[in-house]
Each structure stands twice: as C-alpha cells, then as structure tokens.
Amino acid sequence: MNIKVPAFLLLAILAFSTPSYADSKERKIEWSDVPHKAQKTITKYAQGREIFKLKKEKIILITEKEKENKTTLYLAGVKKTNGKKTWITVDKSGKLIDIEDEGTEEILEDKKK
Questions:
Q1: pTM of the prediction?
Q2: In the predicted model, is pLDDT for residue 1 greater than 90?
Q3: Structural domains of the chain in order of their starting residue, each with its CATH number
Q4: Which of 19, 21, 36, 73 is deepest in the core (most CB within 10 A)?
C-alpha cells in the first residue's frame, strides 16, 4: 500500500491544526482579496449561507515525488442553518481542497488487510 498519500494528508491536517502555524501563516482577508475562481467555488459550496470569516494561508505542499510546491489556500467559514460552522478550503485556482465541519476530527488510519 502506498503510504505517501496518507502521510501527506496527516501532515496537512497537522499543519492546519497547529496553533503556532496558524498564528504565523494565516491572515484575515476581505472578499475582494479572494481570486475570482476561488470565489466561485466558495459560493457554490456555501449554498447561500452566511460567510462569517475569510482567511488566506500560504503553505508548502510536498508532492508524491517529494517536490516542494508553494501555494496559497483560501478558507471560508460558513454558518449552517443549525448554527454549526463549516470551513471550505480552496486553492487560488478554485480547486476544492476540503470541507470540514467545525468540531469534528478526522482520523487517518492505514488499514492493513
């Protein structure tokens, strides 16, 4: 089984959840600061719900070929009708990276059969 993909995803989750990383690499932005393609994707997945916060994060991704790739991600906090919050993460080209409900934790496991 290819361990690189689960390892990369685990590193990405740790990077987003580490407070020191968040303090140094993310900043609040205005809607006009979000690229048009990213705006379209966020709007599509927000489905008319209120966007309460926008953030921009610069990260370094490590590809499967162990090549570093600097990129910028845009995070939109969206309030659902039940009061729960969801974070929509897209890259500058508008590609959906993740949708995560606040308060849930993903657990990555390497299932061996």
A1: 0.65
A2: no
A3: 4-101 (3.10.450.360)
A4: 73
